[in-house]
Amino acid sequence: MVVNTYLFKSFLIYFLPFLFSLTVYSFAEFDLAELKSFFQIILIFCFIVYNIHIIKCKLFFQPLSFLVNLTTIYFLIGGNNWIERGATVDFNNEFFVLIYLSFLLLCCNIGFYLGGFRKKKKSNYKVDYRVVKIVTYSGIIAILLDFIFIGGIPIFSGNAIRGASMPLFRLFFLLGGFSSIILFHKYKKKKLVFIFILLAVASGYRTFVLVYSFYIFIYIMNYLRFSLFKKVLYMILGFCFFISINLLKLYRDISEFGEMQYLSILKEEGLSEDYIYLSPILHTVREGPQIFQKIRNSNFEFGNGTYFLENLSTILPGEQRGYGSIFNDITNAPTDNTKTATIVGAFYIENGIFSIILIASFLGCIIGYLFQQYYNSKKSLFKFIAYSYFISFLAIWTHGGSPLSPTFLLSSFLFHIVLKRVNLAR
Questions:
Q1: What's the rounded Cα separation, in Å, for the pair 309 and 211?
Q2: For the whole model, what pTM was predicted?
Q3: What is the mean pLDDT of residues 126-132?
Q4: Which of 93-102, 281-290, 321-330, 335-344 has the highest mean pLDDT?
């Protein structure tokens, strides 16, 4: 039996404290405040021990390590009630993320084991870079055509222009961005990567910027040879870039509501004007757990898979409900702006804890399988691309609450065809 020590110990680090906390929760009596503190301490303990483990294994920058740390930090920060407006987040925030990560890591081991049964094929790794170039430059052309057809650059033109953006153009742009890393690895075309980042920022979609940035960050940390000092420095720069990207939201909000109204909103939330530049980050990490809390406080019927199918139907012409609209309807939100409820919220509405365990197990098996293929291929760049591609989207879903979205499924299908065409996916 193939057992990967890194994966197995990662699973134990989260699963055993989860079992302990579940036992205490079942047999001890706490009031709400004490219980929340208890689960926060358990999650912080897991986070510390996990990082000691991945540092010892010299896998701190490994994609799965990045995902687990990002998810833990996001839920820990988002679960704090420092914004007074809206629902108070209770202990279930930490409890559900313990369930999610425990089963995700458990099934990473299963996926890794099952991946070992795949029959190895002889491959010639003669790469047809012409196809990669066509896909990459088509992405740039597609987003520029999108800007022309909608009549402006979204970041400078407000939400109305951004909402008119064409999904097909965005899809080609996304594929071009991922393909650009192959050209960067071969020809060291740094300018090409910067062009995609700038165009992603110009599109006004933080999701584009973040998923592409995560992808680049994971590649840099695993494939470019740097000293530990430089890697830490790049992490700090990456964090600063993340903060600057969230200023896109501040720019859009102030453009829409005006500075005075935005400051009055901060006052309602118990935040002083000094927090204006940090407010987009506080709102981002707070929104998901808070909407998830509102969903749990609401009386609604579990979808049993229908909400997921509704979200998939958004790829079809006409108006369909995506997860954002579904969350709004469940919580009776007094706004048309779509909300996020984290990745656990998206599946909690299907069948409670059972569906969270189900999706965590499914995603874990995929991660484990992709990791095994990368691990067994002597750390091939091309297996790594598929692995980091999936991890990058999953990192976005942690907050965005739209797992296995139509955009991801369609882009994955097309990206697989591209990789197959250039002999990278065999």
A1: 23
A2: 0.84
A3: 75
A4: 93-102
Tell the residue number behind the tokens 């059972």, with chain if given: 354
Q: Give the long-range contacts of residues 25-32, CB within 8 A, separation 24 or more.
A: 25/95, 32/90, 32/91
Inter-residue contact 387 to 371 (CB < 8 Å): yes
pLDDT tens-digit series, residues 326-385: 888 888 876 656 678 888 888 899 988 899 999 899 999 999 998 888 877 766 777 888
- Other C-beta atoms lying within 10 Å of the C-beta of residue 144: 14
CA distance linking residue 191 with residue 245, whole number of Å: 19
CA contacts within 13 A on the Cβ side of 148: 7
Q: Which residue's entry shows tokens 């598929």?
A: 386
Nearest to 250 by CA among 273, 233, 270, 219: 273
Answer whether 11's CB lies under 8 Å from 106's CB. yes
Q: Tokens for 391?
A: 């991890």
pLDDT at residue 3 greater than cutoff 50:
no
**Nearest to residue 253, comparing CAs of 294, 204, 212?**
204
Q: Contact 290/89 with Cβ under 8 angstroms?
A: yes
Mean pLDDT lowest among 105-114, 177-186, 313-322: 313-322
